[in-house]
Amino acid sequence: MDQFKPSIRDGFELLQKQFALSLEQIAELDSQDIADAVICDLFLNHELHISDVATMANLSHETVTETLLKRQIVKDRRQPKGQAPNGVERRGALMPRKTSSWFTCS
């Protein structure tokens, strides 16, 4: 049995190896679902880059990316709001605070 090993394409981790729909599934698709299926097919099965898919489908890079995320083709890299990446707080002072000996509060 061939085990799926995640790979990276266009900076995204792939969650699926290929994209396929049965004839029954295709028959039930509406126009938006068909457009999404074409995007997924071009990206996964034809191994086109996101920018190439966007050009071919006359869509923005953002629209293609959102479709791939929505259809769980690629892993979402965004961090939840208010949470640091990998639990590491990266904000901090750029320079240490200077203390002056001539100013003291008494």
Molecular structure report:
This protein is mainly α and 106 residues long. It has a domain at 18-75. It has a two-stranded antiparallel sheet with strand order 1-2. The protein has 4 helices and 2 strands. Helices cover 36% and strands 4% of the residues. Helix 3 crosses helix 4 (61-70). It is elongated. The protein has helices at residues 23-27, 31-45, 50-57, 61-70, and strands at 8-9, 12-13.
List the keywords.
106 residues, mainly alpha, two-stranded antiparallel sheet, 2 strands
Topology of this protein?
Blueprint: E1 8-9, E2 12-13, H1 23-27, H2 31-45, H3 50-57, H4 61-70
Antiparallel strand pairs: 1-2
Helix pairs in contact: 3-4
SSE series: EEHHHH
Structural classification: mainly alpha
Shape summary? elongated
Tell me the distance between the termini. 76 Å
- Helicity, as a percent range: 25-40%
Number of helices: 4
Low-confidence stretches: none
- Lateral strand order in the biggest sheet: 1-2
The portion of residues forming beta strands comes to under 5%
Profile the largest sheet.
2 strands, antiparallel
Radius of gyration: 23 Å
Total count of strands: 2
Mean pLDDT over all positions: 83
